[in-house]
Amino acid sequence: CFWFFFSSRRRHTRCREVSWARRCVQETDKDQAVSDNSLSGQQLSLLLQKIKNLVNTEKNQLALDRETNIRKEAEFNKFRDEKLQELETEKMVWNKEKLALLQPEKMEIIEMNVGGTLKLSATRSVLTRYQNSLLTAFFSSGNNLTKIDGKVYIDRDGEPFSLLISFLRSGKSPIFQSENQETAFRNELNYWQIPFGPSYMDQQCGDPMQFDPQFCASTLNLEPGNRIVKKIGLNHGIVFANKPMDSSETFIEFRVLIQMRYRGKSNLFVGLVDKSCYTPSSLISTFWKDSPSSYYWDVWSGKLTATDKDGNLKASCQGYGCPCEEPETNIAIRYDPFHRTIIFYKNNIEQGVAFKNVRSGLYPALDLWFHTGNVEILASKQPNQASYLQLPRKLICLLYTSDAADDTPCVDLGGRRIIKKK
After folding, report:
1. Cβ pair 265, 225 in contact under 8 A
2. CA-based angle 182:377:357, to the nearest 5?
3. DSSP-assigned states of every residue in 324-366
4. Which one, of 301, 303, 297, 307, lies nearest residue 345 by Cα?
5. What does the alpha-carbon distance between residue 178 and residue 180 come to, in Å, rounded to a whole number?
6. Which of 5, 115, 323, 420 has the fewest CB atoms within 10 Å distance of its CB?
7. Where does the pLDDT of residue 7 fall: very low under 50, low under 70, confident under 90, or very high at 90 and above?
8. Its pTM surpasses 0.85
9. Do the Cβ atoms of 272 and 335 come closer than 8 Å?
10. Across all residues in the chain, what is the average pLDDT?
11. 271 has which bridge partners?
């Protein structure tokens, strides 16, 4: 009994000690948790304060930037308004000067009734631009002009006469929508005896011709300035000029320098083409079907070739010009917009009319077949009459004068072959 009592008491005491120890640990953990919570709250307060300070700083900076932008915008608007005012003032001054040039003090305006279908107005100075023309004589101040409702009556068709007035004002050929319109315009010029052609057009208008980089075969190399094209290699290549031949561009001259022939012989085709019918692949093609609406002269064989819009051979014949081949040759093209003809020149000698009934707006083209060499566009604007002489009949090479030759689609004029457009 004693032993049982003693053992029970010892176990009871030990349990109390364990329970007390547990309570101590729990109290300690509770105090530590309260301390940790207090520390975390202080850190959170500091972090929130820093964030508030940062936000306030950013707000202040944004407000400062906004004020700066507003000030700069106001300064820019002021500067812009001042410059616009200066430009407006310059524009007003320029308009006044232009108006003074276009409307001289003693300008006389003439109202016209053309054929009863068209009302036109023009100054007397425009109508009398060409002193020896019938139009100048018609509008001379001494004539009594027939008037209807105060307008001078002119018994002519309205559209061609309107194109005539446009030509008199600008000095340049109008842009025609069709060949019939161009023919009517030329007939109107003939009626009023107004000259039209290379010798009467402004030869200094616009920049000089160059080669067109967009229409230069990959087998050719254009030098800076686009006035010299180089040929190296066996494959041929075609290159176009950048301007069409018309009343304002009637002449172009090339200097051809051949350093190495192509398999013992060099071919050079020169002429006028319709650039709108060509594609980049056409510039290296060897088939005539890829050269539509073209008029070519094979310089060293004396052959003339014309194709239609589908690339079919329209006419081809031999015997034009001198076929002599030289290492350096000057080749020129002249387009006569009045007679609608193409004339070629070789080394300052006119070779004669090559093609007739050729519409304006075609581009000069070269097809190079020699191995190595270059071609340069010269600055000539028209033939030098002192050096460009018509080839004497006795010097014409490869004449075709037999009756059998007349069975071809060409005609024989003065011992030469010229191609007539069908």
Report:
1. no
2. 25
3. ---SEEEEEEEEETTTTEEEEEETTEEEEEEE-SPPS-BEEEE
4. 297
5. 5
6. 5
7. low
8. no
9. yes
10. 78
11. 296, 365
